[in-house]
């Protein structure tokens, strides 16, 4: 409870000390001066309560020992410290001047009354260091000069003895100058070091300002939305103009929002966990997620992010690319690719299931595609090897026919369709192949040639069989028209004679001739029947 009270009191006290008039805020624009002012305010905050360690026993011992004037000076200096600490309506430069005056007054008085071994010398050194820390360093060099004048003045007092001081009993003028030179030396060294530190700090500040300016230019001029958000509260810390334009929110609106406000409701639950898991990893990340614009439009975005320190916040810098159109195109392309794949599969199925063999040639007469049937139905020589992609079709043609076949292809590329048949003997069997050479056009230009082949051996055998049957039928027809008619005519004539003949001997002779003609006719009919049976 006591600690809570102390912390609350200290925050109130710190707020009072740090108050400054409005005109002092202009000075804060200079970063180096800002840090000097902050350092001075910290000095005031801690100097006042800590000063009681020196003031209370010093005043008490002064009044008790009869050194009334020392007690009065201590109280006066403490009053100046109170004014500089709590009179916040005073400009900061006047508060600094009060503190410097207080230290000089205290140093001179203590040296005069307590000598070189008293705290006055330390206050003189401390004043120079304080000046170097809270005002431009050039004034610290002037402070060293003032210290030298003060010390020389005391040397003159020691030498000429215009009035009695304790230093007259402790030092001669030469001894005082010897001791004082050490103070000047030490002051000068410390000021030079502080000057070098502030010069380096100023360079760092300038570089930082330049980097911040470059960052701001890149951040604001980016054509893609960018923002910074606090990884603890998820609140937006800064957004660029592209983010305002793309999402429809004004910058003031963004500053009142968190990153959860631009995410779809279903994904909000996971955001805090994701950010919490990644906020300790200062690594570049990229993800594809969904965002919602001010008008409610849902978009797909690709975010690229990295953790950075921003004005004391552990923040995440995010670059956003809207890929909604890209995803839609990719989905359409996937659908088209699926349809194309299905069409290719259907075409391939048709291509492979056809009775004809196909070989597609490119403009260099090389094999671009062929189906399984091609190996059976497109034969160019008796010892043909398997077709291969990219191989010239002329490699499959007999050497004696290559020139002729090349001429055929040239005619095809001129737009002519060529058909022909060839007979081959493979594995002891005769094969007949019907070839068709067809131009393949792209618009009006012939770009490829297609060779189709069909095995017509069965057809040829069928035609040959029909021709042989026709030959037999012609023989049968001749036999019917010539061989059958002769015995039949004799039978008809003998039958007529037999009906008119009365002589038994003649009748018997006619019957013998009639029997002979009938047998001849029967033999001819049997032969015709036999030929007819062989053709069926």
Task: Explain this structure.
- With 536 residues, the chain is of the alpha+beta class.
- It folds into four domains: 2-203, no CATH class; 222-322, Beta-Lactamase; 354-455, PAS domain (Beta-Lactamase, 2-Layer Sandwich), CATH 3.30.450; 466-535, Helix Hairpins.
- It is 62% helix and 15% strand.
- The chain contains 18 helices and ten strands.
- A five-stranded antiparallel β-sheet has the order 2-1-5-4-3, with helices on both faces. A five-stranded antiparallel β-sheet has the order 7-6-10-9-8, with helices on both faces.
- Strand 6 and strand 7 (367-370) form a beta hairpin.
- The chain is rod-shaped.
- The termini are far apart.
Q: Rg to the nearest angstrom? A: 60 Å
Structural class: alpha+beta
Helical content band: 55-70%
Number of extended strands = 10
- The rounded distance between the terminal residues' Cα atoms is 125 Å
Annotation field: number of helices? 18
- On the 0 to 100 scale, the average pLDDT is 80
Secondary-structure element order, N to C: HHHHHHHHHEEHHHEEEHEEHHEEEHHH
State which percent range the strand residues make up: 15-25%
Q: Which regions are unreliable across 5 or more consecutive residues at pLDDT < 50?
A: none
Shape: rod-shaped
Strand order of the largest sheet: 2-1-5-4-3
Number of domains: 4
- What summary fits the major beta sheet? 5 strands, antiparallel
Question: Can you describe this structure in just a few lines?
Answer:
This protein has 536 residues and is α+β, with helices and mostly antiparallel strands. The chain has 18 helices and ten strands.
């Amino acid at each position: 409870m006591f600690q809570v009270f102390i912390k609350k009191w200290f925050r109130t006290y710190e707020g009072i000390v740090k108050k400054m008039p409005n005109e002092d805020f202009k000075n804060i624009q200079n970063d180096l001066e800002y840090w000097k002012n902050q350092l001075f305010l910290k000095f005031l905050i801690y100097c006042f309560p800590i000063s009681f360690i020196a003031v209370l026993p010093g005043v008490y011992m002064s009044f008790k020992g009869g050194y009334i004037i020392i007690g009065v000076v201590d109280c006066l200096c403490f009053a100046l410290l109170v004014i500089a600490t709590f009179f916040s309506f005073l400009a900061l430069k006047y508060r600094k001047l009060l503190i410097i005056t207080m230290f000089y007054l205290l140093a001179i008085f203590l040296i005069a009354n307590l000598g070189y071994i008293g705290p006055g010398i330390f206050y003189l050194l401390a004043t120079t260091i304080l000046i170097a820390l809270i005002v431009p360093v050039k004034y610290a060099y002037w402070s060293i000069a003032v210290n030298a004048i003060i010390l020389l003045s005391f040397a003159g007092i020691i030498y000429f003895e215009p009035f009695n001081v304790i230093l007259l009993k402790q030092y001669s003028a030469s001894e005082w100058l010897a001791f004082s030179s050490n103070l000047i030396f030490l002051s000068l060294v410390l000021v030079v070091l502080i000057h070098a530190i502030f010069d380096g700090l100023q360079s760092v500040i300038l570089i930082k300002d330049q980097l911040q300016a470059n960052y701001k230019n890149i951040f604001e001029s980016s054509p893609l939305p960018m923002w910074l958000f606090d990884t603890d509260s998820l609140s937006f810390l800064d957004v660029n103009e592209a983010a305002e334009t793309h999402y429809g929110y004004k910058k003031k609106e963004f500053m009142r929002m968190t990153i959860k406000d631009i995410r779809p409701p279903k994904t909000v639950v996971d955001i805090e966990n994701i950010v919490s898991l990644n906020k300790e990893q200062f690594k570049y990340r990229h993800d594809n997620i969904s965002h919602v614009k001010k008008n409610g439009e849902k978009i797909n975005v690709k975010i690229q992010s990295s953790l950075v320190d921003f004005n004391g916040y552990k923040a995440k810098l995010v670059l956003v690319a809207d890929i909604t159109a890209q995803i839609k195109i990719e989905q359409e392309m996937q659908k088209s690719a699926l349809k194309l794949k299905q069409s290719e599969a259907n075409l391939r199925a048709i291509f492979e299931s056809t009775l004809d063999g196909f070989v597609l040639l490119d403009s260099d007469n090389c094999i671009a595609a062929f189906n399984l049937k091609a190996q059976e139905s497109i034969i160019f020589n008796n010892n043909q090897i398997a077709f291969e992609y990219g191989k010239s079709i002329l490699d499959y043609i007999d050497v004696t026919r290559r020139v002729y076949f090349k001429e055929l292809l040239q005619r095809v590329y001129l737009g002519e369709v060529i058909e022909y048949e060839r007979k081959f003997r493979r594995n002891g069997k005769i094969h007949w192949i019907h070839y068709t050479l067809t131009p393949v056009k792209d618009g009006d230009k012939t770009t490829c040639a297609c060779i189709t082949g069909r095995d017509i051996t069965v057809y040829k055998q069928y035609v040959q069989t029909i021709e042989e049957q026709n030959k037999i039928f012609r023989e049968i027809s001749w036999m019917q028209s010539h061989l059958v008619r002769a015995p039949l005519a004799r039978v008809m004539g003998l039958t007529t004679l037999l009906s008119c003949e009365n002589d038994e001997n003649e009748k018997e002779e006619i019957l013998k001739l009639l029997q002979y003609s009938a047998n001849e006719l029967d033999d001819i009919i049997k032969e015709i029947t036999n030929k007819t049976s062989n053709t069926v």
